Amino acid sequence: MAHELPPLPYDYSALEPTIDEQTMHIHHDKHHAAYVTNLNKTLESAPALQGKSLEDLLANLSAVPDGIRQAVINNGGGVFNHTLFWEFMAPKAGGEPTGEVATAINAAFGNFAAFKDKLSNAGMTRFGSGWAWLVFDKDGKLAITSTANQDSPISIGQKALLGVDVWEHAYYLKYQNRRADYLAAWWNVVNWAEVAARYARFK
Ligand SMILES: [Fe+2]
C-alpha cells in the first residue's frame, strides 16, 4: 500500500502569526508531499518493503537494501518527521507544560527556561538543514538532540516527544535568515497536550 500525505490537522492559517499561511501551504503541500511521492517511488523497486509501516522501515534500516537505504532515510524520514511536526504544533497553544511532563522536564534540565534554551540552541547550532528534538533516548532518559537533514530519532532507538524543523523551508518566507527569531516565536505554537500524550505513551 502506498504511503499517503496526511492532511494538516488544522487550517493553513491557524498558526498565524507565528507561522504564516503561505509557508504552511508550501511546507505541507509541496515539501511534505514530495517526500511522500519520492518514498513511494523509492519503494517501487522493493516490493517486500511496501507492506511495512513507515515506523517499521525507519526503525529497521538494516532491512532496507543498500541501494535505496539513503533514499528511504531521506524521504521516509521526511514523511515521518513532518507528520510529527504538524502534531507538535497547534493553534492557541504555547505556554508551558503542566503535570507529569513538566515535572520530568524540570528534573532533566533544571527548569523550563533552561529546557527552552537548550532545545533552541540545538536548533540554532544544527549546521545546514535538520531538526532539534526532545526525545526519550535508548535508556529511557529525556534528552535534547539534533539530527541532520531528514534523519529521524526513531532510526537510532529514540522516541520523539517534541521536535522543530530548522530547514530554511520552514521559516524563510517570514523570517528570512533569522532562524533565532523563528525558534523564539515557535514556542508560541507548541502543542503541549500532544507532548504530554506522547510522554504518557512512551514513559
Ligand atoms: Fe520541513
Overview of this protein structure:
The chain is mainly alpha-helical. Helices cover 48% and strands 10% of the residues. The chain has helices at 21-43, 54-59, 66-87, 99-109, 112-124, 172-175, 179-186, 192-202, and strands spanning 130-136, 142-148, 159-165. Strands 2-1-3 form a three-stranded antiparallel β-sheet, sandwiched between helices. The chain starts with 20 loop residues before the first helix and ends with a helix.
CATH fold descriptor of the largest domain: minor pseudopilin epsh fold
CATH superfamily of the largest domain: Iron/manganese superoxide dismutase, C-terminal domain
Strand content: 5-15%
Q: Ranges with pLDDT <50 over ≥5 residues?
A: none
Q: Secondary structure elements and their pairing?
A:
Layout (H helix, E strand, L loop, with lengths): L20 H23 L10 H6 L6 H22 L11 H11 L2 H13 L5 E7 L5 E7 L10 E7 L6 H4 L3 H8 L5 H11 L1
Antiparallel strand pairs: 1-2, 1-3
Helix pairs in contact: 1-3, 4-5
The protein binds fe (ii) ion.
The site of fe (ii) ion (FE2) has 7 residues, from helix 1.
Q: Quick summary of this structure?
A:
The protein is mainly alpha-helical and 203 residues long.
Task: Please supply descriptive tags for the structure shown above.
single chain; 203 residues; mainly alpha; Helix Hairpins; minor pseudopilin epsh fold; 3-stranded antiparallel beta sheet; binds fe (ii) ion
